[in-house]
Hints:
This protein has helices at about 1-10, 10-25, 25-35, 40-50, 55-60, 65-90, 95-105, 110-120, 125-145, 155-180, 190-205, 215-235, 245-255, 260-270, 275-295, 310-315. By secondary structure, it is mainly α. It has a single domain (about 1-300, about 305-315), classed as Na+/H+ antiporter like fold (Up-down Bundle). Helix 9 packs parallel to helix 13 (about 245-255). The two termini are about 15 Å apart. Mean pLDDT is about 80; it is low at about 300-324.
Amino acid sequence: MTRLADALERFLLPLVVTAAAVGIAFPGPGRRLDAANAILATLAVLVFCTGASLAFTDIAALKTASRRLLLVLAVTTVTLPAFAWLASHLVSGPALRGGVLAVGVAPTEVASVALTGLAGGEAALAAALLVGSTVITVLLAGPILALLGAHSTTSQLGLLATLALVVALPLAAGFAMRSVDPLGGREQPLLRIIATLSLLVLLWEVASELHLRVSDASMVAAVLVYLACGAALGWLLGTGAAPARRTAVFLPTAMRDFAVAAGIAASAFGAPAAAPLGIYGILVLVFGSAAVNLIRRRPSPTGQAGRSRSGTWARGHVRGAGRR
């Protein structure tokens, strides 16, 4: 199973593109599943696997970066929704605008934790940002969307209940299982496989909502603008930090979780609102992979490019997060 998990992660990018292409080319099955809330069910499985890749002792060991951690969480909670609001004006229709807004309230992309480790960054800080941003999303996504003027088809209390059931509960369950570790880590290869397959299924479901037209260029432009703004913010927030810590701030800030965003969009605005998230999911994974390659090529103070103990931590403890 370890070899299969490694193979799925190694060929993740072409698998992501293939899943999206199948969803666009044959949208019928995906749309029928979406009508039965399949996006939320798949997301719950994915989030559980995410939690099961994180141990409390790993995050609790992070002490020296607590101030920067709080700063990043505070700034991104305020700034990223504003970027999404600006980018949403590039698309037409309340559903598509809602989909773009959902990215602004989404937590850190889980894959950014593993990518941070592979780039030689502090993966523990990236993991802490993931957990913190997820809690903020569950508590504040509804109020922030309402503040931005999004007209949700469900109440704020309903959205909160959905996020608690689909995101908070599975994350806590997986987190608890990993911390107790009853199987001594033997379940990790299987969880990595399930996580990767869940990601591909979710991307297929989201891509099924796409209706490719010339006008869809506006959706691509919107998510590109948001991604660029997030990357610029991550670079600014990492200014002045050591290279490893700067990487751990840059990637989690720039990369937001398209899967959770799709769940928020589908719950708050209906399944068609998840369409922009299929485009964003592909672009953010390509961006993360390219960023890691660039960071690894940059000489480090020790003369080695992109290797540190953080990378070892990520491969050993957060390997399941590399599912995307």
